[in-house]
Amino acid sequence: VLTMDLHTPQVQGYFDVPVDNITAEPAFRDWIKELHLNEAVLVTPNPEDRDCIIYDDIADTCVSIVKTAEFLKQQGAKRVFCMATHGLFSRESLQMCEDSPIDQFVVTDTIDQHENMEHYPKLHTVDVSHLFAEAIRRVHNNEPLLKLFKL
Asked: Does the pLDDT of residue 26 top 90, yes or no?
């Protein structure tokens, strides 16, 4: 079984077959590079005049993400970007994000977002199919997955 960014590693223990958990980090890293941000920070006690990036593994209700974005803007953040591996987006979470100070919200394509992106301009996706393809190739050839995630 091949998974991506399990919420907790203990989930692997529920399987009776080998489980490999890969991360979306390389896809997000590429997306961040394309933004050409100056002095961006993932988390900082002083976001003033900086581009800030919030990361979560699952975007579901988005309450804490929006509250964090609001706090960062109140503290003087220049722009706020959000990333989540899995864009679950329950209830009114996408509208809440759209109405928030979040500048862009990017999720992987582990859950289809095409319809959502038509209605919510702040929402973007990054493709992770190449990560799964390479992980499958490595598992098939008994090669380590660790090399997938080296910077």
From this structure: no
